[in-house]
Amino acid sequence: MQLRYNYRVYPTPGQQVSLAKAFGCARTVHNDGLRLRQRAREAGGKYVSDGELSRRLITEAKGTPERAWLADVSAVVLQQALADLNTAYRNFFDSLSGKRKGRKLAPPRFRSRKDNRQAIRFTKNARFKILDNGRLRLPKVGDVQVRWSRSLPSDPSSVTVVKDAAGRYFASFVVQTSPDETLPPVTSEVGIDLGLTHFAVMSDGTKVTAPKFLRRAARTLKRMQQSLSRKQRGSQNRRKAVVKVARAHARVADTRRDWQHKLSTQIIRDNQAVYVENLAVAGLGRTRLAKSVHDAGWSQFTAMLEYKAARYGRTFGRVDRWFPSTRMCSDCGRIGDRKPLAVRSWGCPCGSRHDRDVNAARNIRAAGRADLNDRGAQVRPASVPAQRGEAVTRRKLTPSGV
CA-CA distance, 71 to 73, in Å (whole number)? Predict the structure, then answer.
C-alpha cells in the first residue's frame, strides 16, 4: 500500500527564495487554468481539455513576456499544479453526480499567496534525488537539508514540499510499503466508545483519559492572540505575531497527532479486530461542545486505526451511528430509554448494572462482529482513507456560512 512519510527540511535563505518562486509559479498556473475554464464556460464554449491547458499555460506561456519567468522553475511543478486542478474538477463533478460519497463539494477555487499552506510536488520525471549525504536534491532549488527521523521503506515515487502557516518546511514522500508487514495474529478483539471526558473506552473496561491538548494550551494561545490583536495591521510586528500564534497552534496539533499515533499503534498491535462507532463529527462540531469535539480529534484517530489495520493485516469495522449502543444492555440485549449525558451508570431490569461507556463499547464490539458475520466469514481489511491531497477542493458552505 502507498503511504506518506513526512520529514522536516531546512532550506537555506537562497533555497527559500527558490521555493517561494516555485510556489508562486505553481499558484499562477493553477489560477490561469481555472480562469480559462471559467471563461470558456461563461462563453458557452467547450470544456478546455487537460492537454490544451498544458500547451497554452505552460509551453506557449513561457514564450510570452508576461509569463517568461515560468521557465525559472521546474516544468514538473507546473504540470502538477494543473494535475491538482484537474483532480479538483473531477472531485467536484463526481460529487454532483453522486459518484463521490459524502457531503457535496464546491467548485475549485483560486489559490492565494496568503493561504496558510503552500505546496509544490515533484514526481520522478523531475529527477529529484536523495543524495548519499542525506540531502534532498530538488531541480532548480538545490540540495536541501533533511532531518531524517526514520528511513524510507522504498524509493519514493514523488515528493511534496510544503510550507505551513508557522513558516516550517516539510518534505512529504509517497512510498510503497512492503507486503510482509502483517503482524502475528492475536485472539483479542475490541470495541471502542469515543468520548470527551474519556477519549476512548475499550470493551475490556480500559479507559483512556482525554488529554485535551487545546484546553491545556488555551491560556498561552489567549495571551498570544491578545498580543496579535494589538499590533498595527500591515506592520512587521503583526507578521511576527501571526507566525507566533501559528507556531503555538502547530505545537498543539503536532502533540495531539503524536499521541494519537502512539495510542492507535498500540491498539492495532494488541487486537486482531477493532470496531468503532461512525460518529457524525461534523454535526457535533456545530453544537455547544464544538471546541471539545475538535480538540479530541476523533476523525483523525479513527483514520489512523483504519489505515494501520489495513497495513498490518488487522480487521477494522465501523458501526452505524444510529445503533443504540448506550441504551442497549450488553447482557440481555434489552433497549431502554434515552439517557442524558449526566447518567454515567444505569441498571437493567435483567439485574445487570452497567457503566455507560463500557457498556457502549461492548455493544459496539458485538455489533461489529455481527455485521462482519452477516457479510461473510472472511472480511478484507478496509480501504485506506486518502491523506490530505494537494488538490484544491473545499466543502460547500451552507447558506448560514457554517
Answer: 5
Q: Sign of dihedral through CA atoms 105, 382, 177, 183?
A: positive
Concerning whether 193 is annotated as a catalytic residue, the answer is: yes
C-alpha grid cell, residue 188: 483479542
The percentage of the chain sitting over the pLDDT mark of 90, rounded to a whole number, equals 66
C-alpha cell read off for 180:
510482509
Which tens digit of pLDDT belongs to each residue from 9-39? 999 999 999 999 999 999 999 999 999 999 9
Look up 72 and say whether it is catalytic: no
Element housing 238 (H / E) = helix 236-270
Average pLDDT over residues 266-273: 94
Q: How far apart (Å, rounded) are the C-alpha atoms in residues 273 and 311?
A: 13
> What would you measure as the largest C-alpha separation in the chain, in angstroms?
83
Cα separation, 209 vs 326, whole angstroms: 19
* Angle between helical axes of 13-42 and 75-97 (0-180°, round to 10): 40
pTM score, whole prediction:
0.83
Q: How far apart are CA 110 and CA 340, in angstroms?
A: 45
Q: What are the DSSP calls for 152-176, one per residue?
A: -SS--SEEEEEE-TTS-EEEEEEEE
**Which residue in the list 32, 84, 189, 193 is annotated as catalytic?**
193
Catalytic residue (choose from 277, 295, 306, 390): 277
Helix, strand or coil, per DSSP, at residue 115:
coil
**pLDDT tens digit string along 307-359?**
999 999 999 999 988 888 888 888 888 888 888 888 888 888 888 888 888 99
Q: Is 306 a catalytic residue?
A: no
Contacts of 391 (CB under 8 A, 6+ apart): 84, 85, 87, 88, 91
Query: What does the block give as the cell for 192?
Result: 471502542
Cα–Cα distance, 72 to 46 (Å, whole number): 32
- 285: Cα within 13 Å, side-chain hemisphere: 11
